[in-house]
Write a structure and sequence with these properties.
Elements (H helix, E strand, L loop, with lengths): L4 E6 L9 H9 L8 E7 L2 H8 L5 E7 L9 E6 L24 H11 L5 E7 L12 H33 L3
Parallel strand pairs: 1-2, 1-3, 3-5
Antiparallel strand pairs: 4-5
Amino acid sequence: MTSRMLVAGVGNIFLGDDGFGVEVARRLATEDLPEWVRVADYGISGMHLAYDLANGYESTILIDATSRGDDPGTIYVIELEHGQPAAAAGADAGSQLFDAHGMQPDVVFGVLDMLGADAGKVLLVGCEPASVDYGIGLSPVVTAAVGEAVRVVKDLVAAAGSSTSEQRSVSDGSA
């Protein structure tokens, strides 16, 4: 195993474009990814994600709808700092400990701290939503962005594999 990476789709499928991460994870599950990458749909189960992260991944890619004020369908890649609140990554600044979304990265990382675990490097691949009103299904513009998000995640996985191979070559003296 060259690395351990968790690709976690999160979001609430009953709130329109908030189901973006779930749909991207569903599509990624059908892709040919390296054996050291685990793709999972966490939906709104933040506690499940926290406990899985506590198992020790070197890096994690969270995929979620992310409001930052750009045009709907815009894809973002944001490196989350340890302890960075979700609001700093673009989520609503009014997030409570629990809300209808049910998946707050800052709460997940707080649980990790309580467990004495480290999330490693965490990237957020986000998509600007058009609507997070009640209803099942992504808006057309966010549906169109799913393919780009899959490509972005696959590129991030490839880059992680390349950097791990380079590190191994240097430590083996074969560089």
